[in-house]
């Protein structure tokens, strides 16, 4: 929950964003927060010893440091994490007090966060842009959470920090972008993705207020003039442990309505993952067709355009909406990865079910053009009895080839795990999986952990949970859709060609 609009002025001067219901953008901070919540277990705050990390989670462990509060003024004394503390506080040693830190500005920021944590007993997430002379600009994200040795008194604070270098991106939006009337917003857990899109556009995210009330309701509004402007909202709509798909959809619709009421000329919802899109037809009597209902909600609020990446059924998506729709796909991104890593090995493209056969065939033809050699094909299908999968059918040539299973999303992981096993059983030398949306339900980790998959390639359209990343380890490869979304926004704003973008990629 971003609450700058209701925060006291000293904190506003120190930070660009404050979340008192933390949703860290960086995986290592998200994992620290997840472990802190698990260790708390109903106490005022957890003990430091109750928070631990696996060897493959070293990045999270190395991002944190701990201060013990001492003296009447509660000055912090460093007890752990010299290297991480130095990122914020400069040269620092175990036993040094916060009041002695070399980076005075960093110490002031941390002291203010300590004060909030001790006052509320809750973790807080803060963000600011570092612009120190002689260094690249960076977005710095800080998570501070209380600790307690006796379970009742807050006596220490755990801090985790992450700095994301902006690679010399402009400090302000360029005059060309700012004067063109384009306004780019990002909501919730998609703020990090929105920043990547903004950087690719050479712009900055427009400010907004996202305020949650005690009863769970919220309001959301732009904090700059949008009258007559072309507005784009980046927000992926998968459900997670922070908010359900329905909650996210509702928030997006409220913001679309707020922008239209504020005089925006055009509002485009950029939803890399569109929720409720899999139920696109009736399979039983009186079944809902949720894809159409979602479309009607967008239209009722005055949405001018909806942009998605690899929806489950393109035809159903396009037919459900009366407003303009733009369907992007990640095939060019996956094909580039294959081209860079496959070498001269023979390849086969595999569809995990008959419904995805057209998607797989388009990808196979693209690979043939890029590799300039034949690419084989195969498919698998499952048959059910009384709602349960009782058998599989596999057809195609994968023997001694690298089998690339292509799909739009992975949820439970069972389908791709069975398809990978079938590819191995039919002689595949290697098995890769390329799926646009890594939705990953709770059971996905167990389904995929021991599956015979050499590479699992997904995009960052959906925020990856740290526990899933840890389960997949080095087999997991994430490609960014930020460039694709940015180029689509650029072309839509300038009335350019999306067809050519899909053919060539960003």
Automatic annotation (TrEMBL):
Its EC number is 2.7.6.1. GO terms for biological process: 5-phosphoribose 1-diphosphate biosynthetic process; purine nucleotide biosynthetic process. SUPFAM superfamilies: PRTase-like. It catalyses: D-ribose 5-phosphate + ATP = 5-phospho-alpha-D-ribose 1-diphosphate + AMP + H(+). NCBIfam families: ribP_PPkin. This is ribose-phosphate diphosphokinase. One of its GO terms (molecular function) is ribose phosphate diphosphokinase activity. Keywords: ATP-binding, Kinase, Nucleotide biosynthesis, Nucleotide-binding, Transferase. It comes from Methylocystis hirsuta. The lineage of its organism: Bacteria, Pseudomonadati, Pseudomonadota, Alphaproteobacteria, Hyphomicrobiales.
């Amino acid at each position: 929950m971003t609450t700058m609009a209701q925060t006291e002025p000293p904190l506003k001067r120190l930070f660009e964003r404050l979340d008192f219901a933390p949703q860290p953008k960086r995986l290592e901070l998200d994992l620290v927060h997840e472990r802190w919540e698990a260790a708390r277990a109903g106490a005022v705050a957890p003990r430091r010893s109750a928070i631990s990390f696996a060897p493959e989670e070293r990045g999270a462990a190395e991002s944190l440091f701990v201060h013990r509060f001492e003296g009447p003024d509660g000055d912090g004394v460093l007890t752990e994490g010299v290297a991480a503390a130095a990122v914020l506080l400069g040269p620092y040693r175990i036993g040094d007090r916060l009041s002695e830190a070399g980076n005075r500005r960093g110490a002031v920021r941390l002291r203010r966060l300590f004060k909030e944590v001790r006052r509320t007993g809750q973790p807080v997430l803060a963000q600011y842009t570092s612009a120190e002379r002689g260094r690249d600009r960076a977005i710095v994200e800080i998570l501070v959470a209380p600790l307690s040795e006796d379970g009742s008194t807050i006596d220490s604070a755990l801090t985790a920090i992450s700095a994301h270098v902006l690679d010399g991106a402009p400090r302000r939006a360029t005059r060309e972008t700012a004067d063109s009337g384009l306004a780019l917003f990002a909501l919730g857990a998609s703020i990090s993705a929105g920043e990547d899109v903004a950087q690719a556009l050479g712009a900055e995210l427009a400010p907004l207020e996202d305020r949650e009330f005690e009863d769970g309701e919220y309001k959301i509004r732009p904090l700059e003039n949008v009258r007559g402007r072309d507005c784009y909202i980046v927000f992926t709509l998968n459900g997670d442990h922070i908010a359900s798909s329905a909650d996210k959809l509702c928030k997006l619709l409220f913001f679309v309505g707020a922008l239209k009421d504020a005089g925006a000329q055009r509002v485009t919802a950029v939803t890399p993952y569109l929720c409720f899109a899999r139920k696109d037809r009736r399979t039983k009597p009186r079944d809902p067709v949720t894809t159409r209902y979602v479309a009607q909600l967008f239209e009722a609020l005055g949405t001018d355009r909806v942009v998605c990446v690899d929806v489950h059924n393109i035809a159903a998506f396009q037919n459900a909406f009366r407003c303009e729709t733009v369907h992007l796909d990640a095939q060019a991104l996956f094909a580039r990865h294959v081209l860079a890593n496959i070498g001269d090995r023979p390849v086969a493209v595999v569809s995990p079910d008959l419904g995805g056969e057209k998607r797989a065939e388009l990808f196979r033809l693209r690979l043939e053009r890029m590799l300039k050699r034949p690419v084989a094909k195969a498919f698998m299908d499952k048959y059910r009895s009384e709602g349960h999968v009782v058998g599989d059918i596999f057809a195609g040539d994968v023997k001694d080839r690298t089998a690339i299973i292509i799909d739009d999303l992975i949820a439970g992981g069972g389908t791709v795990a069975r398809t990978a096993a079938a590819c191995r059983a039919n002689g595949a030398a290697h098995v890769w999986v390329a799926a646009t949306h890594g939705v990953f339900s709770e059971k996905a980790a167990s389904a995929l952990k021991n599956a015979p998959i050499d590479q699992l390639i997904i995009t960052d359209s959906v925020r990856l949970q740290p526990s899933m990343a840890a389960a997949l380890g080095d087999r997991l490869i994430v490609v960014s859709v930020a460039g694709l979304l940015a180029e689509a926004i650029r072309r839509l704003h300038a009335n350019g060609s999306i067809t050519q973008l899909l053919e060539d990629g960003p």
